[in-house]
Design a protein that fits this description.
13 helices; alpha/beta; two-stranded parallel sheet
C-alpha cells in the first residue's frame, strides 16, 4: 500500500509526471493482472475493458501532474471518446478505474519516496473527473428503454405524423394536378412506413420487457394479406414477385401483417434494388410456409447466431440493421406454434421463412 508524506516537497527531483511515464508499462501490467484476478465482473474476458485506452489515460494524468508541478493551469481531465465505448456496465467501468488509481498510487510509492498529500490529491482529482463524466453520460451501457417510455415516445410521434398524413391526403383530394396528387400519395405512404417503424420499435421494446405478442386469431386467406402488404412496392421502385397458393387458415391477422411488413422492410433495405423481392407461400404437411427472399450480400456466418438477439451495445445495432424487429417476428411465429428460419448465401440471397400451422388455434390455446 502507498503512504503519504505530510509535506508538499516533491519526492521526485525530475517530477512525479516523469516518474509516472517511466513506470507506465509496469502499471498497466499490474493493473491488468488485478482486474482479471478479480474475475467476477469480467467472466470470459481475456483483457480489461479499459485496456485499449489505459495508456492514453496515464498520459493524460501525466499532463495534469506536469501542469500542477509547473504551476500552470491545465485543462480539466478529458473524457476520451473510447473511455466508455463498448463498456458492458457502468459498474465494470468504475471498478477498473478504481483499480487503476490504486495501482498507480502503489507503483509510485517506491523505497523511501513517499507520496505527498498533494500528490495523492492531484491523482485522485483526475480519476474523480473521469468517474463523474462516465456516470453522467455512459454511452456504452446496454441499449434498453422501458416499454412504457417507448409507448410515450410513440404517442408523441404519432400525433404530428397523423396531422401530416391527413394534410397530404387533403392536398391530394383538392388538387387536379396529377403530379401533385402523386406526390401527396407518396407522402402518405412514407408516413405509413414511419408509423410501421414506430410500431416495430414498440414491439421490440415489449419483448425486451419480457412481454409476448398478444394474438387474436381469425380465419382469413393469407395471399390477400400478402398482396395488401406488397401492393405499393413497385411504386417505391422495388420490384416484387408474389407466388404460391391461396391458403386459408387461423392466424392473428395483425401480428402476421406486422411480421410480413418487417420481413419485407428488411429485404428492401438489404437487397439489391434492381433485383425483385420474392414473397412465396406454400402448404406442406398442414403447415403454411411464408418466405421472403432478397438477392444481396449474405449475412456473415458469425452474425447468424445472434441475428435474433436484441442489440445490447451500440456497435451491435442489429447486425447492420438486419435484426431490428426480427426478435418480434420470431416471437410471433413461436406464439403460433411455429418458427422463423433464416437461410443466407451469396448465390441464393437471404430468405426468411415463417413456418406456422395452418390452424394455430390449438397452439394459442395451449
Amino acid at each position: 500500500m502507498y503512504t503519504t508524506d505530510a509535506s508538499d516537497t516533491p519526492a521526485w527531483p525530475d517530477g512525479l509526471a516523469a516518474c509516472l511515464v517511466r513506470v507506465r508499462g509496469n502499471v498497466i501490467a499490474m493493473w491488468s493482472a488485478r482486474v482479471l484476478a478479480l474475475g467476477a465482473a469480467h467472466a470470459n474476458v481475456d483483457a480489461p475493458l479499459l485496456a485499449p485506452v489505459a495508456p492514453a489515460l496515464l498520459d493524460e494524468l501525466a499532463q495534469q501532474l506536469t501542469h500542477a508541478q509547473s504551476g500552470t493551469a491545465g485543462a480539466a481531465p478529458q473524457r476520451s471518446g473510447p473511455l466508455t465505448a463498448g463498456m458492458h456496465a457502468l459498474a465494470d467501468l468504475v471498478c477498473e478505474l478504481q483499480l487503476l488509481r490504486a495501482t498507480i498510487l502503489d507503483a509510485l510509492q517506491t523505497g523511501s519516496r513517499a507520496l505527498s498529500a498533494r500528490d495523492v490529491e492531484l491523482i485522485c482529482a483526475s480519476f474523480d473527473g473521469w468517474l463523474l463524466a462516465a456516470a453522467q453520460a455512459p454511452p456504452g451501457l446496454p441499449l434498453h428503454v422501458s416499454d412504457a417510455c417507448i409507448d410515450g415516445f410513440a404517442h408523441d410521434l404519432r400525433n404530428p405524423l397523423g396531422v401530416a398524413s391527413a394534410s397530404a391526403q387533403l392536398i391530394g383530394l383538392k388538387s387536379s394536378d396529377p403530379t401533385i396528387t402523386s406526390l401527396a400519395g407518396r407522402i402518405v405512404k412514407k408516413i405509413g412506413d414511419a408509423d410501421a417503424l414506430i410500431q416495430t420499435l414498440q414491439d421490440t421494446a415489449a419483448l425486451a420487457d419480457g412481454k409476448s405478442p398478444v394474438l387474436h386469431l381469425s380465419a382469413f386467406e393469407i395471399m390477400a394479406l400478402i398482396e395488401e402488404v406488397c401492393v405499393d412496392l413497385p411504386l417505391l421502385g422495388q420490384p416484387v414477385s408474389v407466388v404460391g397458393e391461396r391458403i386459408e387458415g387461423y392466424w392473428c391477422m395483425v401480428t402476421m401483417k406486422r411480421s410480413l411488413e418487417n420481413l419485407v422492410t428488411r429485404a428492401r433495405k438489404h437487397g439489391r434494388r434492381a433485383a425483385p423481392i420474392t414473397v412465396r407461400v406454400k402448404q406442406h404437411n398442414e403447415r403454411m410456409q411464408l418466405s421472403v427472399n432478397n438477392a444481396g450480400p449474405a449475412i456473415a456466418p458469425h452474425d447468424l447466431a445472434r441475428l435474433f438477439e436484441p442489440p445490447r451495445r451500440q456497435e451491435e445495432i442489429a447486425v447492420k440493421g438486419w435484426s431490428l424487429g426480427l426478435p418480434y417476428v420470431r416471437s410471433v411465429a413461436e406464439r403460433h406454434g411455429g418458427s422463423l428460419i433464416v437461410d443466407s448465401d451469396e448465390a441464393r440471397g437471404t430468405t426468411l421463412t415463417l413456418d406456422v400451422p395452418i390452424d394455430a388455434r390449438a397452439y394459442v390455446a395451449a
